[in-house]
Specification:
This protein has six helices and six strands; from the N terminus they run αβαβααβαβαββ. The chain has 143 residues and is an alpha/beta fold. The strands form two sheets. It has a four-stranded parallel β-sheet with strand order 2-1-3-4, sandwiched between helices. Strand 1, helix 2 and strand 2 form a beta-alpha-beta unit.
């Protein structure tokens, strides 16, 4: 059962670079994609980063498997509320995702690397209600 908070959360397709001319950049790109997902969560939305998912299952260096991953990603994009273009460069895979989102009429937002990497750390708190016989002696408050 969906609640009101769920109805305000968008399913956001995260587009960010994955492959790079220098193999050492792939790990950095995966880290950045995770940070983009975290930023999306902190904005109250639900991110999906297919390039983090399908590259765990399929070999991105195999053209047949890469095409399968891209096809699966296009299917996921069709179900999303928005596409976020994350980072300061657009890869060929991202360009294809942007083109498809445009064709489908899916709204897009550009999110710079600075927005993602310089976002303030979230603050979490727990509300506790103490029992009269417990260590809080019946008092309640944030921990």
């Amino acid at each position: 059962m969906r609640n009101e908070a769920d109805s305000k959360s968008k399913l956001v397709y995260i587009a960010s670079p994955y492959a790079a001319p220098n193999d050492g950049e792939v790990d950095q790109n995966k880290w950045f994609a995770r940070m983009a997902c975290r930023y999306c969560i902190e904005q109250g939305h639900t991110p999906i980063a297919v390039h983090l998912l399908y590259t765990q299952i399929l070999d991105d260096s195999d053209p047949v498997q890469r095409e399968a991953g891209l096809r699966l990603g296009r299917h996921v994009l069709w179900s999303c509320d928005e596409l976020w273009v994350c980072g300061d460069r657009i890869s060929s895979g991202m360009a294809a995702e942007i083109e498809q989102a445009t064709q489908l009429g899916i709204p897009m937002e550009t999110v710079s690397a600075g927005q993602i990497l310089n976002a303030p750390e979230p603050v979490y708190a727990i509300w506790a209600k103490g029992r009269p016989e417990g260590p809080l002696a019946g008092q309640s408050g944030f921990l």
